[in-house]
Amino acid sequence: MLPANCCAGLLTFDGKGEQMTKRAILALVDPSEASEGSAAAALAFAGPFGADVTVGLVAAVPVPGDRTFPPHLSKQQFNELLEKKEQQTWSLAHASGCEVRIFIDPVDALLDAIVRAARCFDLILLGPVTAFDRDLRLMLIEKLLLHAGKPLVLLTGQGPAHRPARVVVGWDGGTEASIALDRALEWTDAHARFDLISVLPMNSPLSLRSEADDMCARLTRRGHAAVSSIARRGHLSTAATLLGRAVAESADLVVVGGFGHSRLREALVGGVTSEIIRGEHTLPVLIAH
């Protein structure tokens, strides 16, 4: 049963008595020692929004003949690692006032249970590739993006101290990019600046007016500063070019659409989503599908 405060849309009131929505965030961590800072980073990210946080401890039960997450663990080692992580998570929850939910199942049932739970939250947070079992993290991200219907933020080692005020959007005019941008508007500063960056090959022609300009006009009407620009890809990949521009512009958040191509094409020839979720980055990335 989900904790009482984990469902989206709870109403609270600010200091002026005006009604506002209390948001709910699910932060997922695994039992590995590398994930110790992920829950704290998730709490830091949620802090500026005043959101309720549930820390979800994700543990795939070892099955004989199948791989374990983390790898090469005996059942005894898994139980010892899980017990230690549970103690750390409950201690953090006691100190911070957040909720805890434990997900323990064989991997397929585990992924399905997390997706069902995630649908009751507004946002899902996941630590960086260095702070989560890599293979389990990839399966979890794909499942959540395609089946939970919620935006996912891939965190860095630490959470921001304020709401994102400078946002770089990977813009290709597609449905996924538009959905991701709409989701990001719920989690950014009320007057955030949005830079819509279209990454194109060096010899690609420019159009006189693009959907990016129309989207910037929409954002401007909502009170945001918004600009569109072209980044030439050169010898770097689309994802690397976009992330490089975001770092150069001191962005607080990067926004991309998830799996704009089929999963088979992403697996065979690569794609922005696949590269971002597999790699390391220094800025938090919001992905939605």
TrEMBL record:
Residues covered by the UspA domain: 166-287
Family listed: Belongs to the universal stress protein A family.
Q: What is this protein called?
A: UspA domain-containing protein
